[in-house]
């Protein structure tokens, strides 16, 4: 009788996710049914212009658990923002939702966890998956390659001021970081954070990579095409190009459908 009366409706809950000494804001979309359900952790870009909450809602309606997090120092989460902290935040989130009590309360299948990231979040998804074999599937939408920025500046120093100004503008919306601190982080981790260099660790992982034809922020020719060439012989790798901009502004329904179909096959 107790199980029969248990509320198994779909719902949205706020989670307080510990990371370091701080708390992350998590928006947990819990799928309908007793579960446990496969769960997608959604990772936004830098600073978070597009949270992809519409995609989270679409996937939720299609019976996915979706957890949208904000990194330390971003959009209500405690602490200081940094790229290093954000990487730690993703791993802290994975460990948090694997706890028995948390998994039970949110109907999470801890053996079926996937990552979905856009832009900077796409980089976080790839980097996390490269070091965490428990991640079953990764969808990376127009992922940034942080190490590539350093290489591009070395090849053409004139673009450094443009990159600096973009980081400075984004940093305004985040707590505790500056353009200088972000650029120093990237320089210090230029090899570890170069997706082209760690792509070999993703071989045989279930991976979806997407790009936008009119991406002015992370142009397809520089960020997407070389990565596809590295991964194209991997039987688990798929990629798709959308006729849109960096934010996938005019293809939201198509993007959600693509993600739903791909995760159904791979998670």
Based on Cα principal axes, name the global outline.
Answer: globular
Number of contiguous helices: 11
CATH architectural designation: 3-Layer(aba) Sandwich
- CATH superfamily heading: Alpha/Beta hydrolase fold, catalytic domain
Instruction: Predict the CATH topology.
Output: Rossmann fold
Share of helical residues: 25-40%
Whole-number radius of gyration?
18 Å
Lateral arrangement of strands in the main beta sheet = 1-2-4-3-5-6-7-8
Strand content: 15-25%
Structure characterization notes:
The protein has helices at residues 53-61, 83-97, 100-105, 120-131, 146-155, 160-171, 179-188, 195-198, 220-223, 225-231, 252-266, and strands spanning 11-19, 22-30, 37-43, 65-70, 108-118, 137-141, 206-214, 237-245. Helices cover 39% and strands 24% of the residues. The protein starts with 10 loop residues before the first strand and ends with a helix. It has one domain (11-259): Rossmann fold (3-Layer(aba) Sandwich), CATH 3.40.50. The mean pLDDT is 96. The protein contains eleven helices and eight strands. It has 267 residues and is of the alpha/beta class. It is globular, with a radius of gyration of 18 Å. The longest helix has 15 residues, at 83-97. An eight-stranded mixed beta sheet has the order 1-2-4-3-5-6-7-8, with helices on both faces. Helix 2 packs across helix 4 and helix 6 packs across helix 7 (179-188).
């Amino acid at each position: 009788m107790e199980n029969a009366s248990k509320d198994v409706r779909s719902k949205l809950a706020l989670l307080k996710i510990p990371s370091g000494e701080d708390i992350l804001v998590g928006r947990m979309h819990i799928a309908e049914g007793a579960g446990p359900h496969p769960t997608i952790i959604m990772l936004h870009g830098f600073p978070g212009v597009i949270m992809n909450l519409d995609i989270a809602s679409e996937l939720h309606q299609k019976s996915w658990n979706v957890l949208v997090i904000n990194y330390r120092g971003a959009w209500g989460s405690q602490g200081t923002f940094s790229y290093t902290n954000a990487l730690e935040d993703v791993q802290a989130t994975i460990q948090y939702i694997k706890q028995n009590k948390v998994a039970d309360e949110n109907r999470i299948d801890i053996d079926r966890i996937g990552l979905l990231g856009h832009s900077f979040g796409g980089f976080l998804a790839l980097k996390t998956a490269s070091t965490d074999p428990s991640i079953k599937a990764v969808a990376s939408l127009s992922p940034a390659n942080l190490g590539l920025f350093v290489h591009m500046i070395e090849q053409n120093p004139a673009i450094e001021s443009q990159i600096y100004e973009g980081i400075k503008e984004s940093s305004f919306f985040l707590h505790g970081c500056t353009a200088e601190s972000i650029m120093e982080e990237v320089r210090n981790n230029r090899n570890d954070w170069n997706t082209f260099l760690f792509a070999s660790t993703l071989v045989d992982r279930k991976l979806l990579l997407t790009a936008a034809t009119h991406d002015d922020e992370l142009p397809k020719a520089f960020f997407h095409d070389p990565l596809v060439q590295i991964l194209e012989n991997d039987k688990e790798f798929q990629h798709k190009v959308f006729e849109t901009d960096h934010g996938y502004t005019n293809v939201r329904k198509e993007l959600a459908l693509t993600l739903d179909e791909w995760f159904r096959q791979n998670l």
